[in-house]
Amino acid sequence: MVMMKHIPLFSLPLLIVLFSHSTTTLAQSPAAAPTAPATPSTAAAPAPVPSAPPTDIIRILKKAGGFTTLIRLLQATQVSNQINSQLLTTSGGLTLFAPNDNAFSSLKPGFLNSLNDQQKNELIQFHLLPTYVSVSNFDTLSNPVRTQAGENPDRLALNITSSGGNQVNMTTGVVNVTLGGTVYTDHQLAVYQVDKVLLPRDFFEAKPPVPAPAPEKAKGSKKKSADSTATTADDAESDAISVKQRHVMWVAVLALFIAAFT
Q1: CB atoms within 10 A of CB 7
Q2: What spans are recorded as compositionally biased (Low complexity) (predicted)?
């Protein structure tokens, strides 16, 4: 009888443990790849809003076209710089009546060249009102309207009549002017075209001569004249005394001569 060799078998509890470990390992999913940390998002800064350029009367007139002579006068008198400065420093605004080139060409030949620097400045200032006036508000102004040329109502008077903005007429006592279209307005500066140059009476009326004060030199001349007159009188008196003395001397000589022969 052949004897069979006894082969030891795994114990049942050990098999159960091994099977359970293998099943758990196979059931596990692959490890997820690590995610990169989120980068905090930065909001884009808003683009800076460009500020509006300051008002430039020369740029406005050049853009409109047809105001070459007025531009030249504004620059020569430096009133253009004055306008730009006033718009930056005052709140009331300005109103400019702008004669175009045709208006200046209708003037008497050589008129502008006959004006001195002060008169040219006064002429441009006469076209400026020291406040902003819209077309619909000309009928609210009181005549004579004050301009930047001065407040003399006799020589620098500007009278404006309006029918609610439909038509605006102006008179200076020398010319009658009609307001044309609006060249520019921004509720601080108003520029209106006019068909004629506003000529103040101050340019055409003779001004009373200014009385010259009596200088000290003149007083001295009067004193010198009086002294000269007194000297002349003294000389005349001396001459009269000399004649009298000579007369007395001749009388005495004659008396002696007569006495000698008697």
Answers
A1: 5
A2: 30-46
User: Is 201:159 a contact under the CB 8 Å cutoff?
Assistant: no
Give the CATH H-level superfamily of domain 57-203: FAS1 domain (2.30.180.10)
> Cα 165 to chain center, whole Å?
27
**pLDDT (tens digit, 9 = 90+) per residue, 81-91?**
999 999 999 88
DSSP H helical segments within 115-204, as ranges?
Answer: 117-125
Residue 252 or 217, more confident: 252
Could you give the angle at which helices 79-89 and 57-64 cross, rounded to 10 degrees?
120
Sign of the Cα pseudo-torsion (71, 184, 175, 209, in order): negative
Query: From the centroid of its chain, how far is CA 186?
Result: 17
**Domain boundaries in the chain?**
57-203
* Rounded (5°) CA angle 253-255-261: 105
